[in-house]
Automatic annotation (TrEMBL):
Gene Ontology molecular function: any one: ATP binding
Top-rank lineage group of the source organism: Bacteria
Keyword tRNA-binding in annotation: no
Protein name, UniProt field: Phosphate starvation protein PhoH
TM region(s), chain numbering: none
Organism this protein belongs to: Thiosulfatimonas sediminis
InterPro entries given in the database record: P-loop_NTPase, PhoH, PhoH2-like, PIN_dom
Gene3D superfamilies on file: 5'-nuclease, P-loop containing nucleotide triphosphate hydrolases
Family: Belongs to the PhoH family.
Record-annotated PIN domain positions: 7-148
Keyword Metal-binding among record annotations: no
């Protein structure tokens, strides 16, 4: 290796298992892959899991980089610009990729067994640090314990940050904004209003750097009760639509009303056929599932906008795994769909109806509501479906893309989740696919998002949520 001022990053196996494109996310700096990492990639390439697919993709990329290279070329480092995975110029001016072509030995503390893979990577990192003292040698790993051990032996380490959507989850777009008290005094003189098919619209002047997003909810801070949805912001003009009031007892959706302003916003999004994607974030008891199912049943069974409801979620257990389950795909998924089934029972209760009427209703629902496993979504296309992705905080960005791109013409996708309750050991609030899609979709005219905060489950649940 030549003595260059560029940083030298040693990639741990878990980084490439998480993101094969990590090879191209270190700008002009160089990357080093220890032989142990290549061995672990070889051991993890079999299977149909997301990790196995990522390993195979990593192997394909490395194979393309080293194709036609001689051993001497590999020893002096291969330019990462040899391939362009996206077919463009995004990967120009990159550094080099180095492999462990000769033994790199460094002294580890005697209490660390050198035969363990992690410790061999640490040993390689320390040897590189000694060999190139003028370079900043950094181990990049998503393993917290590995970073702790690295610091303990004197090797600088960092987490893999490229998959972070935001620096802090508190910066995530909330989907709504409270208007100041003097909003109407400030904009009243330039405001225009009109009716179109029973819908009320307003046009007003705004600053050119206005931060409103399409379908963002605006709620007045005073007692006027004004609430609207931003439909368009362009050339210093904003068009708002007056929000339908689903808190009104006469505006029920499959027999339920919104109980607060946040739920009213969510119901407006869920009942709008022009919005193809809706994401609802919120803690337990805020009504995400109940509102979504009510809107789905209303638009599928009564309005015939969609011909079927598809419900799915990730299958990550909170406690010990219950093992393999017998039966069909739908029967296997039933234990994971308890929350959806509980809410469906609330919506379909038939007090005063005969057993025959109840049974007929249940048979109708069984025909129009399908429970699917995410494992069999790849390659499918859903037309005119209302798709509900529950517990979406446990999806990676790549899994989220795979699922949402299944939507065909006339399909609506609703993602439900709580980023404060992630069960996957490899995701955080800033790297989950739910955070990723909320941030990426906020500027699209056919998507909407709302973060629900006010609990409506019961006084017991609300007290437990606040105090436990």
């Amino acid at each position: 290796m030549t003595n260059e001022p560029r940083r030298l990053f040693i990639l741990d196996t878990n980084v490439l298992m998480h993101d094969p494109m990590a090879l191209f996310h270190f700008e002009e700096h160089d990357i080093f892959l220890p032989m142990t990492v290549l061995e672990e990639l070889d051991a993890g390439k079999k299977g149909m899991s997301e990790v196995s697919r990522n390993v195979r993709e990593t192997n394909r990329l490395i194979d393309q980089i080293i194709s036609d290279a001689t051993f001497e070329d590999i020893k002096i480092g291969l330019s990462l610009e040899r391939i362009h995975p996206k077919g463009g110029t995004d990967f120009q001016h990159l550094g080099k990729l180095y492999f462990e072509t000769e033994p790199l030995i460094a002294q580890l503390p005697t209490h660390l067994p050198s035969h363990k893979a992690d410790n061999h990577i640490l040993q390689t990192g320390l040897a590189l640090k000694e060999q190139y003292p003028q370079r900043n040698v950094t181990l990049v790993t998503k393993d917290i314990n590995m970073r702790i051990k690295s610091s303990a032996v004197g090797l600088h380490s960092e987490d893999y940050y490229n998959d972070r959507v935001l620096e802090d989850a508190d910066l995530l777009y909330s989907g709504w904004e409270i208007l100041p008290d003097n909003f109407f005094e400030t904009h009243g003189s330039s405001m225009k209003s009109w009716l179109d098919n029973g819908r009320t619209f307003y046009e007003l002047d705004v600053e050119h750097d206005c931060k409103w997003y399409p379908n963002q909810a605006l709620i007045s801070a005073n007692d006027s009760g004004f609430s609207a949805i931003v439909r368009e912001v362009q050339d210093g003009k904003a068009i708002l639509e007056y929000m339908h009031d689903f808190t009104n007892p006469n505006s029920t959706v499959w027999g339920i009303n919104a109980r607060n302003a946040e739920q009213n916003i969510a119901m407006n999004y869920l009942m709008d056929p022009d919005i193809d994607f809706v994401s609802l974030l919120g803690v337990a008891g805020t009504g995400k599932t109940l509102l979504t199912l009510a809107a789905a049943l209303e638009q599928t069974l009564d309005q015939n906008i969609y011909n079927e409801i598809i419900m799915t979620r990730t299958t990550i257990p909170v406690g010990e795994d219950i093992g393999f389950l017998p039966g069909t795909e739908e029967e296997k998924m039933t234990p994971w769909m308890g929350a959806l089934m509980d809410n469906l029972e609330v919506l379909t209760k038939a007090d005063g109806h005969t057993d025959w009427e109840k049974e007929t209703t249940q048979q109708l629902l069984n025909k129009r509501i399908k429970i699917k496993s995410m494992n069999f979504m790849r390659g499918r296309t859903f037309l005119k479906k209302f798709i509900i992705l529950d517990e979406a905080q446990n999806l990676t960005p790549k899994q989220m893309k795979t699922l949402v791109t299944r939507a065909g013409e006339g399909t609506k996708v609703v993602c439900l989740g709580n980023i404060g309750q992630i069960d996957s050991p490899y995701l955080t609030e800033t790297t989950t696919g739910l955070t990723y899609i909320v941030d990426r979709f906020k500027s699209w005219n056919h998507s909407a998002h709302i973060t629900l905060q006010q609990g409506e489950r019961s006084r017991l649940a609300e007290f437990a949520s606040d105090n436990l």
